[in-house]
Amino acid sequence: MSNSMTQRAVQEAVEWGLSNGLAFKSSAAVATQVPFSFTPSVIEQARFERIRHSSPVLAKLIHAISEDTAFLIQAIEPVADGDPFFRALLAMEKQLADAPRLPVLMMRSDFMDDQVRGPQLIEFNGIAAGMGPFGQRIHQLHQYLSQQWSEAFGDWLSAHQGPLVANRAITGLADGIALASHQIKREHADEGPVRFLMVVQENEDNVYDQHLLEQALHRRGIQSVRRSFDDLSHALSTGAGQRLMLDGVGSIDFVYLRAGYQYQDYVSPSDSEQDCCEKLALTRMQIERHRVAVNATVSQQLATSKRVQTLLAAMPIDCFSRFGLDIDEAKLVKAVLGDIRPVTLANINWFQAQRSSDWVLKNQREGGGHCLFDEAILPRLQSLSVADYPSWALMRRIQPVPRPSAALVVRQARTQVVDDLISEIGIFTVHVNGVPATEDNGYAGYLIRSKSAKATEGGVHSGVGVLDSLAFALESVMTESTQTDVDTDA
């Protein structure tokens, strides 16, 4: 295949992506291409199914934890002592123990497929777990390339690639939201329009992913409204039956937080820092004190923290019965939780003695840029106070197998060849008050982000990672559910 033909295929792929919402907002009137791989990553079907089937069990576990206020308080208090943000979240949780909101857990569980141990959980994402729509769109882009530019596409395929793995993330997420929204609407005997409120960050650049979800809701007859915490701080009120009301709009059935996972989301440019943070935190609590579907609740945010993940990794299998898991479910969870060690004086001394590069040091923050590797770990450990220990954890590094052949990635319409591409697999699940909200036991699609194995951070926003999709290995046994890929939200 000539280089000119590949470049034509790449240019059309970029144009297809921009035409179908695969974009970041650069300014008020400018969008830029989201980086992506030209061809999908390959996974054995058995490994993918292991990840897919374990994720609803993880969601079942997280829901039960989020409803166990005593466990959450005991788990988070040590972190709250040294972390103002978690101290504020815990204070909110204690005041919301009997809140009437309908909890909707729209979670993304992120995995990597370790060479030896198989799929291992990296982290839970229970608040602002976005980019599901991007996951479906990049899958559809690879479908387009395989049909429209089959020769150029084939030049970069792995020799072991079989069929693409179906991805209906937009449909799965939208169906879950619609289910919960209509439940609230029926409870209030409200004949007006169903309304969905998305709480967003100011000057967000990842708006197209959000709009793809909103468009799917519009096709289901659901109206959408976008507001920041600052906007809502003076615009919410209470209607009959603890109905959440938004000034100028009316009743709200579902609140989806794409903000609130970091301290700066509660900072208002119009107020003093202390006053504004208290005001915006009160706004979040005000939402949950109404009969409205909510993702994510404060308890869900705490339940999906790395602190809880660390405690679960150390928990004996028989203790999972507290959260409603049977022995088989507990074994499934333990197999993917990985090796996580709390930061203690003993573990600091252990790490200093062995100086292994097999570990990563993580704090409680969400998003990229909060992990330390290799020579950066020990100095940070030695600088921590005892009060800081619960906010950090040592996690064994996952060593996935890179693609067996070089991959072509596309960034700003320019190509780059990467010879060691590895992938992070995010699995979406949706549960309404603990009950699966999709036809596939709560499973709602996937998100693949790939990067060079040499890169420690893999975020697509950071410019290091790229969007990707999955194909089964050629020797995998196909099933009817994986062959079919018909979607009304395409």
Helical stretch count? 16
Tell me the β content: 25-35%
Radius of gyration: 22 Å
C-alpha geometry: globular
Estimate percent helicity.
25-40%
Oligomer: single chain
Give the rounded overall mean pLDDT. 91
Alpha-carbon distance between the two ends: 30 Å
How would a crystallographer describe the biggest sheet?
A: 10 strands, mixed
Given helix and strand content, the structural type is alpha+beta
Low-confidence stretches are: 479-484
List the helices and strands and how they pair.
Layout: H1 3-19, E1 23-27, E2 30-33, E3 36-37, E4 41-43, H2 45-66, H3 69-80, H4 84-95, E5 102-114, E6 118-125, H5 132-148, H6 150-155, E7 161-164, H7 169-187, E8 194-199, H8 207-219, E9 222-227, H9 229-232, E10 236-239, E11 243-246, E12 250-252, E13 254-257, H10 273-288, E14 293-295, H11 298-303, H12 306-314, H13 327-337, E15 340-342, H14 345-354, E16 359-362, E17 371-373, H15 377-383, E18 393-396, E19 407-411, E20 414-418, E21 421-432, E22 435-436, E23 443-452, E24 466-468, E25 470-473, H16 480-483
Parallel strand pairs: 4-25, 5-14, 8-9, 8-13, 13-14
Antiparallel strand pairs: 1-2, 3-19, 5-6, 5-21, 7-25, 10-11, 11-12, 15-18, 16-17, 16-18, 19-20, 21-22, 21-23, 23-24
